[in-house]
Write a structure and sequence with these properties.
The chain has 317 residues and is an alpha/beta fold. The chain has a single domain, classed as UDP-N-acetylmuramoyl-L-alanine:D-glutamate ligase, CATH 3.40.1190.20. The protein contains nine helices and 13 strands. A nine-stranded mixed β-sheet has the order 5-4-1-8-9-10-11-12-13, sandwiched between helices. Strands 3-2-6-7 form a four-stranded mixed β-sheet.
Length: 317
């Protein structure tokens, strides 16, 4: 099977247990949970059974070790993840607002994640990878942008493929050069996986139909429009499909989109029909929200199969 590579931030997530508007007073916290959008994605791909690797950097600390242990346990090739003895592993403190939205306090750019480099070990990982998945969150500094673009060109030059998920947090939109880097990757990708309003982000369109037509005309092979609990839609030059979301008891939505994307990309690389890939991906996203913590709900192929089988036996409402 084809091997997937991600490049980007690795961090721990520490969550407030009660909803509120910020961290202006002491609150009860739980964690640390292994996290980072590229890390969640690649962990889910590995758990689904896809060959998977990551290029990143962590500190020589327990936060770094909890991430490396999780990724290694789930089958991710971590040989391209450097341990920096002088930097601390990244972190994100999360508070759920009363309306259910999330607010983050990040330490990424100044953490070990900001010291990612294409050294001999990471170049070896890149050389044996067939597909690069890029998350917009990874493009937080000019240095990382340059690394991601170099990797994208290397994989494309040998006939590999790229998928791109903008995944743009509001806190990141003001970073210099971020939008420009996202536009370059948007125009180079084979699969585009936007969420919600991100579909029109790099287009002149005002609605889904116009945006999809413009994106496909620009050379993207397929668009997978993620719509959260409502499900997803798939578009390519010859077809369109919709996949409703699966109703589950939501505990924590963090990482659901990453798990959805990892599962769909894995199915696409295996040549499965888009409808089958969408069903697997929707099941992975649904399972992800049933556990507290970004990676805790990442599911194996057997768990996804069991989930879908149970849903197919359930009587229609």
């Amino acid at each position: 099977m084809k091997s997937i590579l991600t490049i980007g931030e690795i961090l721990v997530e520490i969550m407030a247990t009660d909803r509120g508007d910020g961290f202006l007073e002491p609150v009860t916290l739980i964690g640390p949970f292994p996290s980072g959008a590229p890390a969640i994605f690649i962990d889910q791909a590995a758990r689904f059974g896809q060959p998977a690797a990551m290029v990143g950097c962590v500190g020589d600390d327990d936060f770094g070790r909890v991430n490396l242990n999780r990724l290694r346990r789930d089958g991710v090739d971590v040989s391209g993840i450097r341990i920096d003895p002088e930097a601390v592993t990244g972190s994100a403190f999360v508070r759920y607002r009363p309306d259910g939205s999330r607010a983050f306090v990040y330490n990424i750019k100044q953490s070990a994640s900001g010291r990612i480099a294409l050294d001999a070990a990471s170049r070896a990982v890149l050389a044996r990878s067939d597909h690069l998945h890029v998350m917009g969150t990874a493009l937080f500094s000019p240095q990382i942008v340059a690394i991601v673009l170099e990797a994208a060109e290397a994989i494309k030059a040998r006939g590999g493929t790229i998928s791109f998920d903008p995944n743009l947090r509001p806190e990141m939109l003001r970073l210099p050069g971020l939008r420009e880097a996202c536009e370059v990757l948007f125009r180079r990708c084979d699969l585009y996986l936007p969420s919600g309003e991100e579909l029109t982000l790099f287009t002149r369109a005002q609605d889904e139909r116009e945006a999809v037509a413009e994106i496909l005309a620009g050379g993207v092979r397929a668009v997978i429009h993620k719509k959260g609990a409502e499900g997803a839609a798939y578009f390519d030059a010859g077809s369109s499909l919709t996949q409703p979301g699966f109703a589950v008891a939501e505990v924590d939505p963090t990482g659901a989109g990453d798990c959805f994307g990892a599962t769909f990309v894995s199915c696409w690389l295996r040549g499965l029909p888009p409808a089958e890939g969408l069903a697997f991906a929707a099941a992975a996203g649904a399972l992800a929200v049933t556990r507290q913590g970004p990676m805790e709900g990442a599911a194996t192929r057997a768990e996804i199969d069991a989930f879908l089988a149970a849903r197919s036996r359930s009587p229609a409402p």
